[in-house]
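Tutorial, part two.
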Amino acid sequence: MLDSGIRASRSYRNQSAPLRERKWSFGVAAVLSLGIPGAGQMYKGKIGTGLLWLIIVGIGYFLLVVPGLILHLIYIMTAASGDPYK
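Running the prediction step on this input gives:
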């Protein structure tokens, strides 16, 4: 009798609670990327993509301001879209 109670207690503790999916805000990602290219992607958990965008946008600004601005705007849109949990 006591043994079955212990087993029931153990099985209850071994049941894992459903994992909550981490949420991210597209607005926060866009605002972060507005200030620092790559920060929005890093916020979404895509560190490599964020660093790549930082380098690409930096090169665009170095070569000419207009390509840098265009790349920066494209980056802001990609940071604010998509699902990083796919």
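Residues 47-63 form the longest helix (17 residues). In part three we will examine how such features are distributed along the chain.
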